[in-house]
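Marked as duplicate of an earlier ticket. Keeping the data here for the record.
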Amino acid sequence: MKRFAIGLVGLGLLISNLTLAQPAASAPKYWILFDAKNTADAPALAPASLSRRQQQNLPLDDTDRPVQASYLEQLAGLEVHIECRSRWLNAVSARLTTAQVAQVQTLPFVKAIQAIDPAITITALDLPANPQLAPVMNQIQASDFSRAGLTGRFVTIGVIDAGFFGADSTNALKHVFARQGVKQVRDYVNNAKTRGNLLRTMETMSDFHGTEVLAAIAGSDPTDNIQYGLATDAQFYLARTDQGNREFRGEEDNWVAAMEWMDSLGVRLINTSLGYAKGMSNPKENYLPSQMDGHTSLISRAAQLAADKKGILIIVSAGNEGEDRSWRIISTPADAQGVLAIGATNDRLWNRIGYSSIGPESLPYLKPNVSCFSRYGTSLSAPVITGFAACLMQANPKLTNKEVIEIIEKSSHLYPYGNNYVGYGVPQASRALALLKNQPLPATAHLVKASGKTWSLPVSTSETIVSVFHKKNGLHVLQQEAVKVQNGRVVLHREKGEKQTTVDLKRKVIEVIWE
C-alpha cells in the first residue's frame, strides 16, 4: 500500500523531527501561570452551573473565564504541548525541557513556572472485593434518612478517583447503571478511552478503587440485603485522574482539570479519595509535613477556590498515614480549610483507628472535620459522608456548601468538643435532620472541672468501656485510650501537659477542664 510507503530514511527523519518538537515523556511537568484574563471572554459554564451560582449568590469572576487563547498560541510557537488547562488557576500544565523553561520564562504574560509534584498517594489500604460497610450504616443512623425518604435523589455527585473497573457489573451498583445514574465518565489518564473501555479495561489493581468508593456512596446489594451507601438514587459524573497504585506517579493537573470539568456541568458535591503526601519516585519532590498548611499545594488552593467561589462541597479522605511515624498527618487537599476532610474510627469505641491521619497542630482550624467507621481506609469513610451530605442536599437543595459542612459538624457526636484525631466525631442522621428543621438538639455535651492528678468522674452510660482523649489544649490530642466504666464512674489519670480531657460516651460527651 503505497500511501504508507515512507521509506526507512523518511521514517527516521519523521521520528527525529517529532523528538525535537516534543519533550520526552520523562521530562518534568510544570504549571505555567499567567498574569491576566481577557475580560471579553465569556464564562465557560453550563446553564446548570450558572443557575447554581445564582441560587447561592456567587458572582461570576475571572476564574470562570478561559485561559487567553493568545497565550496558548504563543506557547505553541515555542513547541510547548499543553496537557491540561486551568481557568481557576489561570494556568496550563506541560512537560518542558530545560531549554523550554528558559524560553517560557521570558514571555511577558508568564507570571511564574512551578514544578508539579507528580505522585498521588491513594488514601486506601488494599480493598476486598465486597467491603462490609453495614456497621457504619448503623453508626451514622442511616435508617433515620431512609425513614425520611432521603436517598440522594436529584443530587449530582462527582467522583474523582483512580479507576472504575467493573462498576457497571458490580452487584452493589447495578441499580445505579440500570437507571442510567452515571451520566458521564471521563478518563484524564488516557483521554482517548471510551466510557465502556474505562469501566471494562483494567490496567492496574487500583482500577478497582473508584468502584469501591462509588459503592460506598451509593451501593446496595439486594442479594445480600446489605446497604453500602446512603446516596442510592443520586446521579454521578466519574473522572479517572490517577493511574496505578500507591507507588505510581500520578498527576496533580488531572485532578484540577476534573474539578473544573465537573464545575462546568453544575456539580455541587464531589468526593475524592486521592491525596498527595510522600512517595514520589524522586524523594526530593516529596511534600514535607510542614507544607500541609492549606495553601502550599496548588490543588489545595484550587480546592479552596472551589469552596469559596464556586459553591462546591468537596469531601476528601484525610489519609492513611496515622501509623507512619515520619508523617502521621493528613495529606493535601484535605488540608484546605474549605473542604470536608474525613478520618476513620474504630467500630466499637468510635475513637481514631490506627491508620487514620491526624490533623497538623500548626493549622488554625480543625482537621479532620469528622470521622466514621471504615475497616479499609479513609477512602471508604469519605464516601459514606458524601452520601450523608447528599441526603441533606436532597432535603434542602438551597443549602450552600458551607451550610452543609456546618450541619454535618454540628450533628457529630463529640460536637462542640472536637479534636485533631477524629474531628467532631461521627455524624448522626437524627441530629442532622433536627438541624434541618431548626429544632433544638438534646443537651448531650457537658463541661466539668477537675483538679489534681486523678479524678473520678460519674457517668451515665450503658457502655462498659469508653474512649478518652487526653489533650494538651482544646483541640490537640496527647493520646487516646479506652477506659473501663466501674460502678458508674470513669477514673481519669491526668497526663503530663494535659489541660483538657474528652470523655466520649457516644450519646453524650463530657469535656473535663483541669485546674
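See parent ticket for discussion. The chain is about 25% helix and 20% strand.
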